[in-house]
Amino acid sequence: MQQIINFDSFYQKGLACLSQVGDAIHNFVDEAPQAAIYGVAILSTAFLFVATHTIWLMYFHPLSAFPGPKSAAISNIFNFRTIVSGRSVWIIKALHEKYGDVVRLGPNELSFATADAWKDIYDRRKDGKILIKDPKFYRVDDTYRAKHIVTASDPEEHAQMRKMMSHAFSSKALLDQEDVIQHYANGLVDAIYERCTRGPMNLVDFFNWTTFDILGEMAFGESFGSLKNRQTDSWIAIVLDSVKFTAWGVAILKLPLLVHFEKYIFPKHVLAAGHTHAIQSKNKILKRAEMHPERPDFASYILAKREALEITDWELAAHANALIVAGSETSATTLNGLFNYLTNYPDVYAKLKQEIRGAFSVGTEITAARAAALPYLTACLEETMRIYPPIPNGMPRVTPPEGCFIDGRWVPGNTVVSLHMWAVTHNPVNFKEPNVFRPERWLEKTDRLDASKPFLVGPRMCMGINMAWIEIRILAAKLVYHFDFEMINKRNWCEGQQCYTLWQKPAQWMTGTPAQPRPIPTEL
C-alpha cells in the first residue's frame, strides 16, 4: 500500500527545527563571552574572504582564461609541491599534454611549450620590451645566495658582469686552452682502459671526474684531482647535493610565509650541503686570489675587476659557484645522455663509430676543430641535448608592467612566464616521434629544430656555449674512437630521473671493450 506523505506535518516540524536553531543562536549571543563572538565573526569573515578570493582567482583573474589545474590557479601550494617532488619535468609535460601549449602553473604563472615562445620570452623583442628574470626564482641575499651572473635580474648589472667575463669565454681564449681539455680527455681514456680489465664502470663518476677537473684547471688554475685519484672529490659530491638547496629555496618563495621557517622546513642534508658549498666556493676563489698562474684562467677576469666593481668575498664565491656548476655538471649530463642513447640505439652507435674511426688513424688526431667537422657527431650531440636537455625546466621571466604578446597570446603585466625545455622538445608538433633518439633529424632538417635551445637564447644565453661544444666534442669523439660500450641491464637510463633544476643522475653501469691499442698513459 502506497504511503501518503503528510507535507503539512513536515512543514510544521521544519518550522519547529528552525525555531530551535534560532533559540540556540540567541542563547549563544546572550550567554557566550564577547571574545567567542568576535572569534566567530573573524572566522566567518576569513572564510568569506578566502571563498571570494578563490572564486576571483578561478574565474575573474587576468589569467583565468588560460587552462590548467584548478589547484594551481588558486594557490602556489601546487607549484611548491611540484618543485620539491623532483618530478617537475614529468608533471609539467603531462600538464601540457592535457591542457595544450600554454598552462597556468600558479595564480600568476604560465608555462609555454611552443617554439615561437623562445624569442618572445628570452630574446631581444622587436617591441623593445624586456622580460627580466624572476627574482623569486633567482633568489639572492648577501651571503650564501650572493648575486652572480646567472642570478642577476637587472639587465644593466648582468651586462656589466657578462662584459667582465666575456674574454674568458671567447672562441679564441678557449681554443688557446684546448690543451687543458685534451690533457684530461686523454686522462679519461687512460682511466677507462685501466677500468675495462676490472669489470663494469659507472660512467656518471668518470664524466663527473673529468668535467670537474677540466673546469677546476680552467677556472681556478688547479684541478680537483678526481680523475687522478679515481674518486669523487668531497667538494664535488657537495656541489651535486647543493643543487637541491637552490630548488628548495625557489619553492619556499612560492609560499612567502614559509621563508621565516625555512631552516625547519628544508631537509637537513640539503640545507647543510647548500651552506657548505657556498663556504667552500668562497675558500676556493680566495685561495685562487693569492695564486699567480702563468696564464689567465676564468677567475683572472673576475679578480681583475674585484676592486673596481666592489665585488665582495661572498659575491666572488657566488661567481665561483656558478662557474663550477654550469661549467661542468651540464657537460657531464650531456655525455651521460649520449652514451645512454648510443647503447640503446645500436644502429646509431655503429654509424657514429664509422664516422669517427674513419676520420682518425690515431686518437691524438682528435681536436676540437676536426671533431666539429664531423656532421653525424654534431647531430648526435644536438639530439642528446634535445631528448635529454641538461636543464629541462623553465627559466622564469616576468612580463613588463604593461603586458606583452607571447606567441600571439596577450599576457598581462607582471606575470611569471617560462618555456619548459622538456615539454617543448618532447612536443610532437615540434619533433616527430619526440621520444625516439634519431640524430638524422638534425641533418634532414624536417623537424622544428629551433624548438631545441639547450643554451637558451638572447642576452642571457649561456656564456659557456663555446667551451661546452669544444669539451663534449673532444670527449665524445675520443671515447667513441677508443671503446665499445655496452650498458648493463639495457634500459633507458634517463627515464624517470628526478630533477631539481638539474638532473639527479643515478649510476650508469657499462662495460667497455678497447677498440684500439692503449695509448701512452697521461700523467695527471
UniProtKB/TrEMBL annotation:
Matching entries from PANTHER family are given as: CYTOCHROME P450, CYTOCHROME P450 MONOOXYGENASE ASQL-RELATED
Highest taxon in the source lineage? Eukaryota
Instruction: Give the UniProt family note.
Output: Belongs to the cytochrome P450 family.
Transmembrane ranges, per UniProt, are 36-60
User: What is the name attached to this protein's record?
Assistant: Cytochrome P450
What SUPFAM superfamilies is this protein classified in?
Cytochrome P450
Recorded hits in Pfam families, A to Z, give:
p450
Which keywords label this protein? Heme, Iron, Membrane, Metal-binding, Transmembrane, Transmembrane helix
